[in-house]
Specification:
By secondary structure, the protein is an all-alpha fold. Helix content is about 60%, strand content about 0%.
C-alpha cells in the first residue's frame, strides 16, 4: 500500500527546489502584486520563498499560476484550485 502522506511530502520537497523568489523577481513582480494575484498573505508568501514554511500543493499551484509558470501549473493540476490551505 502506498503511503499518500509520504508521497505528498516527497512531491512538496521536490517542488520546493524551484526558486520561487527568483522566478517572481525575474518577472518584475513584487510580493504585494503576488499577494494580490494569489490571494495569499504577503508574509506567508515570503516565508514560503525563504523555505520557512512548507506550502501545500494547491498553494504552490496558485503561486505557479500567478507567476506564469505554465509547466509547473500543469504538473500541479491534479491538486485543484479549491482545496487550498489557509494562509
Amino acid at each position: 500500500m502506498v503511503d499518500i502522506t509520504a508521497t505528498r511530502r516527497l512531491e512538496v520537497a521536490a517542488l520546493q527546489t524551484i526558486p520561487l523568489r527568483g522566478a517572481r523577481q525575474a518577472r518584475g513582480i513584487g510580493l504585494r502584486e503576488l499577494e494580490r494575484r494569489t490571494g495569499l498573505d504577503r508574509g506567508h508568501l515570503s516565508k514560503i520563498e525563504r523555505g520557512l514554511v512548507t506550502p501545500s500543493l494547491p498553494t504552490l499551484r496558485r503561486i505557479a499560476g500567478a507567476l506564469g509558470l505554465k509547466e509547473m501549473s500543469r504538473l500541479l493540476e491534479p491538486y485543484g484550485k479549491d482545496r487550498d490551505d489557509a494562509a
